[in-house]
Amino acid sequence: MLEVRNNNIYTDQAIIDVWAKYDSVSAPYVLAPTLETALGNAASEAYIEEPLVFTASCGPVSAFVDTYYATPNATEFPENWCIGGEGETGLFPDQVDLSYSTDAASFSAGDDNYPLGNLNYFPDMKAKWEAGAVIGVEEKQIAVGNVSLRNYPNPFSNSTTIAYDLKTSATVSLELYNAAGSKIRRLVNEYQQAGTQQVTVDASDLPGGLYFIKLDTGTSVYVGKMLHTK
């Protein structure tokens, strides 16, 4: 199955104007026709279009592209274009900061509610991602809807019982993850009636440490933490 996601592709008017200046230049495809055909209806979900203002970025890319098309054999780049290297104009690589506003849609448009782009520019979010992708789900959706999720005992040694209250009937998926975000087991995958549901987890074969339980009701996702003290 072909998937294309986690992209923000925005074309500034300045670069569109540059393309229009030169008869020999055609605007590139956002998605190649063959890729768009392969994706079908999912092509509209492959990317979002949102202008972003970066904290410390290179000079306008339109200036670089304009210079390239006007003088393709030029050896100098436009002022303030990032090319790196001591003594050259523009920002050095370690001066570039491509973080952007946390209010932007792109900041939560990635998988598990993470920012689009390079997470090195969002160190707090990178640390959470490295701890396991399930962390993003945990922060995005708190258990305040139609479910109450808990386990007991917690901490536990060999086994623990997970309980949750469904106020409405739903198709439920309950999964166990380790601290690295890797799925260990699927505990439940079925339609369940409203009411209190329970499942016992035998962890005698699992190493001690922090684990996450992820409950998906189809409309909401809830995550709980539990500590295995083996």
Structure description:
- There is one protein chain.
- The protein has 230 residues and is an alpha+beta fold.
- It has 2 domains: 13-131, no CATH class; 140-228, Immunoglobulin-like.
- It has helices at 13-21, 33-39, 61-70, 123-130, 134-140; strands at residues 147-152, 159-166, 170-178, 183-192, 195-202, 209-216, 221-228.
- The strands form 2 sheets. The protein has a 4-stranded antiparallel sheet with strand order 4-3-6-7, with helices on one face. A 3-stranded antiparallel sheet has the order 1-2-5, with no helix packed on it.
- α1 packs parallel to α3.
Brief overview, please?
This protein has helices spanning 13-21, 33-39, 61-70, 123-130, 134-140, and strands at 147-152, 159-166, 170-178, 183-192, 195-202, 209-216, 221-228. By secondary structure, it is an alpha+beta fold. A hairpin with a 4-residue loop joins strand 3 and strand 4.
Please give the structural blueprint:
Blueprint: H1 13-21, H2 33-39, H3 61-70, H4 123-130, H5 134-140, E1 147-152, E2 159-166, E3 170-178, E4 183-192, E5 195-202, E6 209-216, E7 221-228
Antiparallel strand pairs: 1-2, 2-5, 3-4, 3-6, 6-7
Helix pairs in contact: 1-3
